[in-house]
Design a protein that fits this description.
By secondary structure, the protein is an alpha/beta fold. Helix content is 44%, strand content 12%. The chain has a six-stranded parallel β-sheet.
Length: 243
């Protein structure tokens, strides 16, 4: 089965609207919603009206932009963002001085999702994939058994041996606690590197997630193209709720 998941639902009105258009056109099957953001409230109502399969897009990578952010949450969250975004390797490091902040921010986002949508998320992933940062994983805040996003899938030769080995090690650790798809790919990379043939072939016998950001013009155009429609007609597609 192929899961076509649009990230950043609720981050802004524009991102919500373009993803909704793709969903209504049958080109995406699920979304990942951000809470405490500019369009989170409206996006939640649209998702409920459309019966969308919605996951939680944990945000530890940028400041919240909603109108009513509790002061303590805002302060704690800003500390997390400053730490994780200072360089590309920060997410690999466990910061013992931010244990309380990570726990508080995660719980606040999970509770806000439940308030907005009236149910638990179908899956969990993260803005800039920070749901896999060391502080979150080692603290074991995400409930056991939850469906979460794995590392990107690469063929031999696409990344260094050490890079692929590290990703495989993390995925094996994740699989002991959570439910993962068999493969995970990014739409832009698949378009640019002509990988969609291999991706769709895998989806015929595996659960494959294809991540998309429809706010990117090239991605929206491809999602709504006749070429992509033909691909989807040959495959079983669905949301995380069906995994």
């Amino acid at each position: 089965m192929l899961i076509i998941n649009a990230d950043d639902w609720g981050r802004s009105r524009a991102e919500t609207d373009v993803a909704l258009g793709c969903y209504q056109g049958g080109r995406i099957t699920s979304v990942s919603a951000m809470v405490f953001m500019q369009d989170s409230e409206r996006a939640a109502e649209l998702a409920k009206e459309s019966k969308l399969d919605v996951g939680l897009h944990l945000n530890f990578a940028e400041r919240f932009t909603g109108n009513r952010i509790p002061k303590t949450l805002g302060n704690y969250h800003d500390k997390i963002v400053r730490f994780l975004m200072q360089n590309r390797y920060s997410q690999l490091l466990y910061n013992p001085f931010l244990r309380r902040e990570f726990s508080y921010s995660y719980e606040a986002q999970a509770e806000e999702f439940a308030r907005l949508f009236g149910k638990p998320p179908s899956h969990i992933d993260g803005h800039h994939h920070m749901h896999r940062c060391a502080n979150l994983l080692l603290s074991k805040l995400i409930p056991v058994g939850m469906k979460i996003r794995r590392n990107f899938s690469f063929w031999p030769g696409e990344k260094s041996w050490s890079n692929r080995a590290y990703r495989a090690l993390v995925d094996r650790w994740l699989a002991r606690r959570y439910q993962l798809t068999d493969y995970f790919f990014d739409l832009t990379q698949c378009i640019e590197e002509n990988k969609l043939g291999r991706v769709t072939s895998l989806a015929k016998s595996n659960n494959v997630e294809l991540m998309t950001h429809p706010i990117v013009n090239a991605e929206e155009e491809y999602l709504m193209s006749d070429e992509f429609q033909i691909i989807l007609q040959r495959l079983e597609i669905g949301g995380y709720a069906l995994v």
